[in-house]
Design goal:
The complex is a heterodimer. Chain A is an all-alpha fold. Chain A is 74% helix and 0% strand. By secondary structure, chain B is mainly α. Chain B has a single domain, classed as Orthogonal Bundle (MetI-like fold). Chain B is built from 11 helices and 2 strands, in the order ααββααααααααα. Chain B has a two-stranded antiparallel sheet with strand order 1-2. In chain B, α4 packs across α6, α7 runs antiparallel to α8 and α10 packs across α11. Chain B is flat. Classes of the chains: A mainly alpha, B mainly alpha.
Chain lengths: 283, 306
């Protein structure tokens, strides 16, 4: 074999090896979560709130954190949808595809996508101080919404790009206004994509801890008011793993499993949903 | 004007205002953080803060040097691991593997990107920390007793552990962007090279990689900026305890994002503490925005050319 083929073979092995390491790392992470979490998981964990002395190993569960995360995730996803949908529609319907303004908004969304979540947390905190707010569900929702708007908007943008140009033109040619085109035709056509975008953002929102650390706070109670602190799953995991008590750390493992299952379920549902609604689309 | 047109007009104006809102967020964050960190900038000056490693909030000393150094260490290690792994994986996915393999691996990368940072931290704590503590560190200290392996921190919570965990976290970003860039290289260029008698790898090396180089650079920059700002996972495995500049792979590090996250309880109780912490957030913001501007500009230009 000559040198060229030798080099080829060498790099082929390196490339395949890298791909295998990447795939194995996911398997490694998921199996760690399951192996450590499953033995510690119990019904009490997910239907009870922390009782007195929970963090030194007494009775209770993490229902407060599960519900808190769902509340923040749902609120933030709704808020982010209310911002990203109009923004992306505006870029596609009211502006020409290559207009300077569209390019600028897309570029800013890209840049916002790269801003670390702790910075959103710190920014949310300064805004809270400005308005004299305390850590609360609503502050958490706003901060997480800021975090997921770029993710959601970019994802919806990709979906709208797939819509055939002729559809918009024929709709406008029939005399509809641009708003009617957006609300009645494109929304329906892009529905699976929008749903997937919302679910992906929801999954990202419930998984993030750094942004809610300052803004949502933590509490042992299930969420009952927009203006009271709420617990979140990632923070519950973080706190439980940080204690010196083995029983509490065990529960941290179980909480990690709960969060992972939740995020995996959301991403599976996102895939299934987008397939299910595809049949309503005009190709 | 009839109601339909009126509706259209209102919708148009509202949507435009939301777009302006998006554009202004970047500036709002910068201005908000700047105003809150102004008190410490006025008192100490940026040079004093950046180059002093003396962090004693109760005495009013807020030197960030140790934290900046921690960030640089951890990010560097993660990049040393993630750049070759990410680029070779992307090359394999776009150039070599079967289409079916690619369809199988892509969801894996999506899932990897969607996992919560806290889960990465948990994984690092229960697997990488013992691995480094019981195997890698004794081996390195035993066989290579010189920089950067010498350390007296035997906990396993260290620069290397954080670097490994971060590397896995930024892999999906590097792979996804690099793979997209590589797939964008026109097929005709590959065919021309192959027709001239080049082997597949020669084509990849001499044509595809050359054409995709700026895009791969952008993928690396964007991965780097993600590693730079990652907080919770690093907080959990880097051993954030001491405010000293790490001198070894096995020393504990205390990166900037971890500092911000760790002070949430106490920062309002000591004067200027919150200003110092929010200054750290501002620095983080400016650096990541800069990296992202560079990265996305490159990718945008490549898209325009294609």
């Amino acid at each position: 074999m000559d040198r060229r083929n030798l080099e080829e073979g060498f790099f082929k092995i390196i490339m395949a090896g890298s791909a295998i390491i990447t795939v194995m790392s996911l398997i490694f992470i998921l199996s760690t979560v399951f192996i450590k979490g499953l033995p510690a998981l119990s019904i009490d964990m997910i239907i009870k709130t922390p009782q007195g002395g929970y963090y030194i190993g007494r009775e209770g569960g993490i229902l407060n954190a599960i519900l808190g995360s769902l509340a923040i995730g749902t609120g933030a996803t709704a808020l982010a949808l209310a911002v990203s949908l109009p923004v992306v529609f505006y870029l596609h319907i009211y502006r020409r595809k290559k207009s300077k303004f569209s390019k600028m908004v897309r570029f800013f969304l890209d840049v916002l996508w790269g801003v670390p979540s702790i910075v959103y947390g710190a920014f949310g905190f300064t805004v809270m101080i400005f308005f004299g707010l305390k850590a609360s569900l609503i502050a958490g929702i706003f901060t997480v919404a800021l975090l997921i708007i770029p993710i959601m908007a970019r994802s919806i943008d990709e979906t709208l790009r797939m819509i055939p140009f002729e559809m918009n033109e024929s709709c406008l040619a029939l005399g509809s206004t641009r708003w009617e085109l957006a609300a009645k035709v494109i929304t329906r056509q892009a529905f699976p994509g929008i749903l997937t975008a919302a679910l992906i953002s929801f999954g990202r929102g419930i998984g993030d801890a750094a942004s809610v650390l300052f803004t949502a706070g933590f509490t042992d109670y299930i969420p009952y008011s927009l203006f009271k602190p709420v617990a979140t799953l990632p923070l519950a995991i973080f706190f439980q793993l940080g204690t010196p008590f083995p029983e509490v750390r065990q529960r941290g493992y179980a909480s990690a499993l709960v969060l992972t299952l939740l995020i995996l379920a959301v991403s599976v549902v996102a895939r299934l949903m987008s397939k299910k609604f595809v049949r309503n689309i005009i190709k | 004007m009839d109601t339909r047109r009126l509706k259209d007009l209102i919708a148009r104006k509202l949507m435009f205002m939301l777009c302006i809102g998006i554009l202004s967020i970047v500036f709002l964050i910068a201005v908000g953080l700047y105003i809150r960190s102004l008190p410490i900038l006025v008192r100490s000056g940026i040079r004093d803060i950046l180059f002093s490693s003396l962090w004693r909030p109760t005495e009013g000393r807020f030197g960030l040097a140790a934290f900046v150094a921690g960030t640089v260490w951890v990010t560097t290690i993660s990049m040393v691991i993630a750049i070759p792994l990410g680029i070779f994986t992307a090359l394999y996915l776009s150039e070599y593997c079967h289409k079916r393999t690619r369809e199988l691996v892509k969801p894996v990368i999506d899932v990897l990107a969607g996992i919560s940072p806290v889960i990465y931290g948990f994984w690092g704590m229960v697997t990488i920390v013992p691995l480094v503590r019981d195997h890698i560190m004794p081996f390195c200290v035993g066989h290579f007793p010189f920089f950067p392996f010498l350390s007296d921190n035997y906990t396993g919570f260290c620069v290397l552990t954080a670097g490994i965990v971060l590397a896995v976290m930024v892999l999906p970003i590097i792979i996804a962007i690099a793979e997209e860039v590589l797939s964008g290289v026109p097929f005709s260029m590959r065919e021309a090279s192959l027709a001239l008698g080049a082997t597949k790898w020669q084509t990849v090396k001499g044509v595809v990689l050359k054409k995709a180089r700026p895009g791969i650079f952008a993928a690396v920059i964007l991965g780097l900026s993600r590693a730079f700002g990652e907080t919770m996972a690093v907080l959990m495995v880097a051993g954030c305890a001491m405010h000293v500049i790490p001198r070894s792979l096995f020393d504990p590090a205390y990166p900037l994002p971890a500092l911000i996250a760790n002070t949430y309880g106490e920062m309002m109780s000591i004067p200027l503490y919150d200003a110092a912490v929010l200054l750290a957030a501002l620095m983080l913001f400016l650096v990541t925005v800069l990296f992202n501007i560079v990265g996305w500009k490159i990718l945008g230009r490549m898209e325009d050319e294609a």
